[in-house]
Amino acid sequence: MVAATRYQIQRAKDMSRESCYEKKLSLLDYAFDLLDSSESPQDFTLILHLSNPPSLDQLRAGANSAMKRYPVSGSTIKNRRWIYVDNHNPPLPVYANGQPSLETFVNERFDLRVHRPIKQILKPNGDSEAVLVTRFHHAAADGLSAAVWLGHQLSVAYGFADPETSPASFCDVPLRASKTSARRSAFAFSGASDPLWTTNYIPSGARRWITLNFPASDLQQACRRTRTFTYNDLLATCALEVFAQWNQKHHPQHKQKIGLWLPINIRSQSAAAFGNGTSRIRLYARYAHNSSISDKAREVRKQISWSIKNGEWVVTEPPLFTKLPRAVISPLFNGYLRQPTVDLSTGIFTHAERWCGNAAEAFKYVTRIECVGLLHPRQHLAINGATHQGQTWLTFTYDPALLDAPDARALVEMYKEQIALARKELL
Fold first, then answer.
1. Is residue 104 part of a domain?
2. pLDDT digit of tens for each residue in the chain (427 aa)?
3. Nearest Cα to 116, choosing from 173, 151, 68, 72?
4. Which end is more exposed in the chain, N or C (fewer Cβ atoms within 10 Å of the end residue's Cβ)?
5. Does some domain include residue 363?
6. In a domain, 47, yes or no
7. Contact criterion met (CB below 8 Å) for 207 and 39
8. Which domain holds residue 386?
9. How many domains does one find in the chain?
10. CATH assignment at residue 269
C-alpha cells in the first residue's frame, strides 16, 4: 500500500512536470515542422516600427516574460515534443546596430531542435524611433499568436503589465468542430488553380519584400455601408484581381483558373491559447471579368460563407503513415504537395485588423507594420496585411529566384490600381 502510494505520488509529480515543461506537438505544429526546408522556410517575420521605443533592457524583460507566459515560444523540439528551456541565451531582442541586415536576418535558417522558435532583433532608427523585427516559426505560432506574444512583450516593456516570474503550464489550442467537412469548395475549378506566372520555377528559399500602405478608414466605412461584404473581402478580391491580370498578361490565350489561399482562425475561442489555431479556405475568381469591384467582393463573401459553413477548413485526423520517423514522412508529405494536381492556389493572402488581449494598448506606439510571409515552392507570392490606426500595410513577399524586383514592383502597382478602382466605385 505504501509503495503504491509512493508510486502514485511520483507519477503525479511526473505528469505535473510534463504538463508544465513539455508538450506533444499538435497536428498543425507537426505539419509546419515537416514542411520546413531550405527552399521553403516555414517562418514569418513581423516588423514593427516604434515611436517612443522602450529600452533594450525593457524589451528583454518583456520577451522573457512572454516566453514564460507562452512556454512553447521558449522551447525546442525533441522527439515530437516541445521541451521548455529555462536558460534563454542569447536574450531577446539582440541589439543590431548595422549588422545583420534585415534581409540576412529574415533569411537565416531556423533549427527548432537547437533554437527556440522565435528570433528577434532591435534596430535603432534615430533618437526616438526603433524597428523591432521578430521571426516566428509557424510550427510554434500562427499570426494571431505572434501578435499576442508581441502585445505581451510590449505591455511589459512599456509598464502596462507586470512580468511573469515563472513558466506557465503548456496548454493546447482548442479548435472548432464541424458536422461537415468539405475537401473542396463548391466554387473550385476542375483541377488545381494556376500557379502565378514567374520567370523561373526553381525556388531559392530566399525572401524579398515590398510594403504598400494606404488610408483605410474611408474604405472600411464604405464596406460596412454595403452590408454585403467586409473590408477584408474587398482586399482579398483585389488580390484575386491582381493574380488574374498578371497571369492574363503573360498567358493571354490561356483560360484562367485563379485561386486564393486564405488562412482563417479556427479556434473555438477567438484568442484561446498560444500556438497554431489557423486553417485555410480557398477562394476563386468565379465572377465575370467586367463585373464591378463590389459584385466581385460579394462573390468572394459568398464563397467564404460557403466554405466556413461546409467545413472546408476542418483539420482532419492524421493518416497512419505520420507515425513513421520524420526522415521518412517529410519527403513523402512534401512530395505529395508538389504534385500539380494538389490545389495550393495561385497565391496567399492574409489580413488582420483586430488585436486580441492587451495588444491593442501596447500597439499604440506602433507606426508601421510589415509582415514577411512564408512561401511554399508552389506558392510564388504572399500578400500579408495589417490595418492599424487608420492605415493598411500590405507586404508582398516573393522569392527573387522566381520574380525579380521589377516584377514585384509591377504587382504592387497593379494592387494600387485595384484600390483606386475601389475608391472610385465605393466613395
1. no
2. 344 444 344 444 444 444 568 999 999 999 999 999 988 999 999 999 999 999 999 999 999 999 999 999 999 999 999 999 987 677 899 988 777 899 999 999 989 999 999 999 999 988 789 999 999 999 999 999 999 999 999 999 999 999 999 999 998 999 998 989 998 999 999 999 999 999 998 999 999 999 999 999 999 999 999 999 999 999 999 999 999 999 999 988 788 999 999 999 999 986 667 999 999 999 999 999 999 999 999 999 999 999 999 999 998 877 666 778 888 888 888 888 889 999 999 999 999 988 766 677 889 999 999 999 999 999 999 999 999 999 999 999 999 999 999 999 999 999 999 999 999 999 9
3. 72
4. N
5. no
6. no
7. no
8. 208-327+336-349+377-426
9. 1
10. 3.30.559.30
Is the residue at 282 inside a domain? yes
pTM of the model: 0.93
User: Residue 378 and residue 317: Cα distance in Å, rounded?
Assistant: 24
